[in-house]
Amino acid sequence: MTDFTTPTRTLTHAGVMKMLTAAVQKAEEMGQPQCIVIVDASGVTLGQIRMTGAKFLSLKSAATKACTAASIRAPSDAIPEAVGPAIAAATGNAVTRLGGGLPIFIEGDCVGGIGIGSGTADQDKDVANAALSAIGARDS
Which of 7, 36, 84, 135 sits between 20 and 30 A of 1, alpha carbons compared? Predict the structure, then answer.
């Protein structure tokens, strides 16, 4: 290896499917249909689903939460309230401080983000954490 490249860990389609399945199962258990979006470390959507009955506009917020978490490598609600509107404006609303977005860390490497929308922030986080657990990932 040279000083010009680094090894890159990526989230596979099998991991994405396992996460989506676990997230849907958790949402069904709690009786709250959800929008679920999983992105890679650069914000490209790898998988998404809008469960029957989930709010259709929540698909947009879930995608923004996932991208935010992947970008800042922290939960989407970690952005301080005081700077939230300015960051949203500066990025054309590509960043949010709404709860429900978590980064996906595998063995210390951030491989992406997951965003959940349509429930309360706590419900969204519970569904996201169920998805992370399914592949042995963490949010930090």
Answer: 135
The type of residue at 53 is G
Q: Which two tokens stand for residue 51?
A: 């469960």
Residue 63 counted as domain residue: yes
Read off the CATH number of the domain in which 46 is found.
3.30.450.150
HEC readout, the chain? CCCCCCCCCCCCHHHHHHHHHHHHHHHHHHCCCCEEEEEECCCCEEEEEECCCCCCCHHHHHHHHHHHHHHHCCCHHHCCCCCHHHHHHHCCCCCCCCCCEEEEEECCEEEEEEEEECCCHHHHHHHHHHHHHHCCCECC
What is the extent of the structural domain holding 55? 13-134
pLDDT cut 90: percent of the chain above it: 91
Q: What is the pLDDT of residues 9-21, one digit of tens each?
A: 999 999 999 999 9
Q: Could you report the per-residue pLDDT of 18-76, keeping only the tens digit for each?
A: 999 999 999 999 999 999 999 999 999 999 999 999 999 999 999 999 999 999 999 99
